[in-house]
Design goal:
Elements (H helix, E strand, L loop, with lengths): L19 E7 L2 H17 L6 H18 L4 E9 L2 E7 L6
Antiparallel strand pairs: 1-2, 2-3
Length: about 100
Amino acid sequence: MPRRPHLPGGPDAPIPETLAYSLTLPAALAGAALARATTREVLRAHGLADMLDPALLAVGELTAVASQFTESSNYYLTLRYRFSTLRLIAYDSRVAA
């Protein structure tokens, strides 16, 4: 059986290194607000409140564009913290040409 990796603060404590979330959001006006509210709480819980302002601005822009241009009824947002970097990625139904 594989061993669980050691994480500082214990397995249940949210720390920056354990920040990994994926959200499915509606392609509607409410989607961007839900994304910003979730991002705000996730960053606070993981001790990354110092990144709130730029992260919320980026999430707002990414989700507004994704909800406007997706051909689906929803889109996806991922939040990850790796190598001292917050990574925000929005996926929609468009296929790059």
